[in-house]
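DM from R.C. (forwarded with permission)

"hey, sorry to bug you on a friday — could you get me a structure for this? deadline for the figure draft is monday and I only need the backbone to look sensible"
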Amino acid sequence: MYARFFKRFLDLLASLLLLLLLLPLFILVALLIKLDSRGPVFFIQDRLGKNLKLFKVYKFRTMTDKKRSVQKVIGKAEGVTRIGYYLRRFKIDELPQLINVCKGEMSLVGPRPSIQEQLEEMNVDEKRRYSVRPGMTGLAQVCGNIHISWSERYKYDLEYVENVSFLNDMKIILRTVLIIFLGEEKFINEPLKLRETQ
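My reply, with the result:
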């Protein structure tokens, strides 16, 4: 019942309220981004959602428009703007995805939406992560995120898919809040245990 109805209802209610409450912050961040570097306020990219449906994900832009090598972006990596570092550190760059949640393309909690190229690297079992809406945060994101391999992230995604519940979502949201203040590194070796659903 939760996965089929209440989860979407809570997503819609929470995203609408948060968008209203965070509007002043959005305006401030937009001004800081424009003052800090050239380029648009938002970074928009095609991602794969539930049932492999393509949609455009929204993020505050944190990178410069200069060409750079493809690599993991951690901390003050090449191309990250001054304001972008802080937006990434405190996950503020992800907040525009509340719009995606409101539109029904994403959920507050679920596997992170992937780019199309990643699909080619997944096996049949790993593709089950697309049976639910992607999330702004997820089990993999609170158990190491960028510090763990893709195969490990997919395992966490599948564990979440198999145990979708209100309690598990609340656990992940609470851990996300802790990570914002304490940093991801403190939770790499402390995986979150989900309560198994029947």
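R.C.: lifesaver. Residues 2-187 form one domain.
me: no worries. Strands lie at 42-48, 54-60, 107-109, 135-137.
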